[in-house]
Amino acid sequence: xxxxxxxxxxxxxxxxxxxxxxxxxxxxxxxxxxxxxxxxxxxxxxxxxxxxxxxxxxxxxxxxxxxxxxxxxxxxxxxxxxxxxxxxxxxxxxxxxxxxxxxxxxxxxxxxxxxxxxxxxxxxxxxxxxxxxxxxxxxxxxxxxxxxxxxxxxxxxxxxxxxxxxxxxxxxxxxxxxxxxxxxxxxxxx
Amino acid sequence: xxxxxxxxxxxxxxxxxxxxxxxxxxxxxxxxxxxxxxxxxxxxxxxxxxxxxxxxxxxxxxxxxxxxxxxxxxxxxxxxxxxxxxxxxxxxxxxxxxxxxxxxxxxxxxxxxxxxxxxxxxxxxxxxxxxxxxxxxxxxxxxxxxxxxxxxxxxxxxxxxxxxxxxxxxxxxxxxxxxxxxxxxxxxxxxxxxxxxxxxxxxxxxxxxxxxxxxxxxxxxxxxxxxxxxxxxxxxxxxxxxxxxxxxxxxxx
Lengths: 190, 253
What we know:
The complex is a heterodimer of chains A (about 190) and B (about 250).
Chain A: H1 3-22, H2 24-28, H3 30-33, H4 53-58, H5 61-70, H6 73-109, H7 117-144, H8 146-189
Helix pairs in contact in A: 6-7, 7-8
Chain B: H1 2-24, H2 31-53, H3 58-84, H4 89-116, H5 126-150, H6 157-183, H7 188-209, H8 229-251
Helix pairs in contact in B: 1-2, 1-7, 2-3, 3-5, 4-5, 5-6, 6-7
């Protein structure tokens, strides 16, 4: 390992530890926040952003199209900005609720002697994946507005479905080839 | 002259927390930490004697006592784990697994290195050996700190000070040893001053953090111990999947 790598490792470690130790006072609120009113319950979405009627409407292009055709460009732009802000608030509220669930889980799991590290790692990975996905969505909404973000999601979901279908088509053939290859090897050995 | 003054100041700063803890009777809360402090104090006094009476043997005395210091330091990391996670058996179980993995990973790296280079074994490459052992400790301590952050483990002022001081010591050691190993004798003069100054700062951190006993704060809400872990994981997973599918459904065409 080069000198730079060692120095980088050292700097990262100390940064990590400093950040952790300086952020402790904030993290202690975690115990109070979990079963009280967390971030997810506040904001323009009432009690539960996951069940809000409003959320489906935010990404619906119908309203934006109506405003674009019936009013001036200035009004349409203002409408788009407001919808973008609303969509970002909604995404923040959903993230807040997921964070709250994870905090509640961590609070219960840390004292539970039956904890399984493999399950925790899997859950942590899923949580990271959710955070990553929502961060990408946040950027897409911020950059393109809710209707374009909805199109992007639709396209991504379609692409993922196509990829899965392709994989399903390819994998049985792959397995078959592997079986044939293994069979051939065993025949040669015998 | 300057190095002797630094040495004496270090000895004083090693004595202060020991005396404070003995007076206030809180040594028993951090036995391994104070054992480590007592060990380095005795080692410093012994090295001081060797330096003035048998200067020729000082280098040998320093480098042969250093691995013992690393081993006693491992006890300190163990104490951080034991004390911080005493009330959290779930997090402790996770920590055992993560620490075992990190220890095997970091140790394997050292053994592979030693296997590939026969000249690596003690004597000529003291800096490199110590640096590698310190990196194992850095990995273990960093792993613990990440776990403490993930599980929001409450730490008292004392434990925070121990962690901060020792990690600072480890990191500055790795940096100094790397530079000393890489730059060779040209760095020796700087190394003679940099290492003790970093160490003095660490001792100051310990003096301040362990001036008096500060118990680990109790969590404000008690975990639901009766909850079954499997059902807990299943419920959290369900919530995560629900949120993900809801986002896609709301944004979907």
